Amino acid sequence: MERKPLGRTGESVAAIGLGTWNMGGRESPDYRDDERVIQAIRYAVELGMNHIDTAEMYAAGHAEELVGEAIKQFSRDDVFIATKVWPSNLRYEDVIRSCRMSLERLQLKYVDLYMVHWPNPRIPLQETMKAMEKLVKDGLTRYIGVSNFDVELLEEAMNALKKEEVVANQVEYSLEARGVEKELIPFCERNGITVTAYTPLGKGRIPSEAASNTKKGRTLAEIAQRYGKTPTQVALNWVIWRPNVITIPKAVKKEHLEENAGAAGWRLSEEDYTRLSKAWS
Ligand SMILES: NC(=O)c1ccc[n+]([C@@H]2O[C@H](COP(=O)([O-])OP(=O)(O)OC[C@H]3O[C@@H](n4cnc5c(N)ncnc54)[C@H](OP(=O)(O)O)[C@@H]3O)[C@@H](O)[C@H]2O)c1
User: Fold this and answer.
1) What's the whole-number average pLDDT of the chain?
2) Which of 48, 133, 198, 213 is the most exposed place for a label (fewest CB within 10 A)?
3) In whole angstroms, what is the distance from residue 171 CA to residue 168 CA?
């Protein structure tokens, strides 16, 4: 699996990882599919998609439990585990408690990346970031990140940190969701921050569009054919085209996991990248 730098840490992460929203339930746990989900997470790691993204909110903690169960057979260094604290838990003590509870569910001593899931204007970022630094100091997370932060908030978060850096900002980015393209991605690039693109397949809408006879679909299909790739692989490759962007598509189906893993390790030409950008704008 192709790897990309994680912020300015000197470390690299898989260009394509795995998202876990909707695994083990949505807002509450649903245990019916557990075995299948565990197998899917294990298969993703075996395919090299070892950056697993989860959150305390996903299935009210059950997604983290499934990740924990799935990865315990691997060596700790062979997985990169990222999780997030929900905006109602951004007070100092709440951040610490949330992280400890996530670690318990994940059966881990530390996570690799701990992120603020969404900003909360009612709680000062200074307070939250102080807690995040304490987590790094105590060895509960290796790195600090944020999610759904615009440039202004990101700068505030960066300034609130004394010793550590914001290494990643997780935001929605795909052929159909381009809000971060003009300002946020270039800002992150200039400041050595990794952009983790979420919902890179538009929750499955982009693969469906690729199969349809629209201009968007036809452009994807035509480019895919020339590269000997599938339209979905081209759509994911487009997402990770910029040097500081990685992504975390969610997939449970075996054929989806295999297809997604094949979306990295090669590059669309600048001409094709631009053509796709225009066709989908
Ligand atoms: N920070 C945030 O606020 C935030 C918000 C949303 C999402 N996220 C993160 O980002 C991850 C990914 O986003 P997402 O789950 O919203 O949507 P997504 O990854 O764009 O789409 C997931 C859907 O696409 C399907 N799929 C996966 N690979 C496919 C393929 N090769 N061909 C056809 N369909 C395919 C999946 O099906 P199967 O599962 O059936 O294989 C699933 O239904 C989440 O799981 C979560 O970890 C973060």
Assistant:
1) 97
2) 213
3) 10
